[in-house]
Inverse folding.
């Protein structure tokens, strides 16, 4: 598990290899990840959008931007946490992801970024 705290918001990421799949006549490696967002600040905040950089050792970097996470824009009061699971397909056994969440602080009205640390995506049988 990897963790990082930005402006009182703690991000924790846990990953799993889910297996191989054929898609468009090509093998893909499926990974899931669970992200937990914990609000250690004194203010209520809301996640409004996300930005991902997906690194695949056999492909170009893929950039993904979108509103919220899994169709939601969670609000976290001080001391609250929110967790969700998602996943991605890679064309290789090794990759990584990193990114950030855009958030708004309800007390100040200001937008800020919360960084998601780089996390590895690796098939266990492919490690040396």
């Amino acid at each position: 598990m990897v963790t990082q705290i930005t402006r009182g918001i703690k991000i924790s990421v846990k990953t799993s290899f889910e297996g191989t799949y054929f898609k468009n006549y090509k093998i893909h490696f499926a990974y899931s990840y669970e992200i937990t967002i914990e609000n250690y600040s004194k203010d209520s905040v809301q996640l409004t959008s996300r930005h991902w950089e997906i690194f695949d050792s056999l492909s170009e970097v893929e950039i993904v931007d979108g509103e919220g996470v899994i169709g939601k824009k969670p609000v976290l009061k001080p001391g609250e946490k929110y967790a969700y699971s998602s996943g991605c397909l890679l064309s290789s056994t090794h990759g990584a992801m990193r990114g950030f969440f855009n958030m708004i602080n309800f007390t100040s009205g200001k937008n800020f970024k919360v960084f998601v640390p780089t996390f590895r995506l690796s098939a266990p049988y492919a490690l040396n």
User: Anything to note?
Assistant: Residues 35 and 116 are 9 Å apart (CA to CA). The first strand starts at residue 2 and ends at 6. The mean pLDDT is 95.
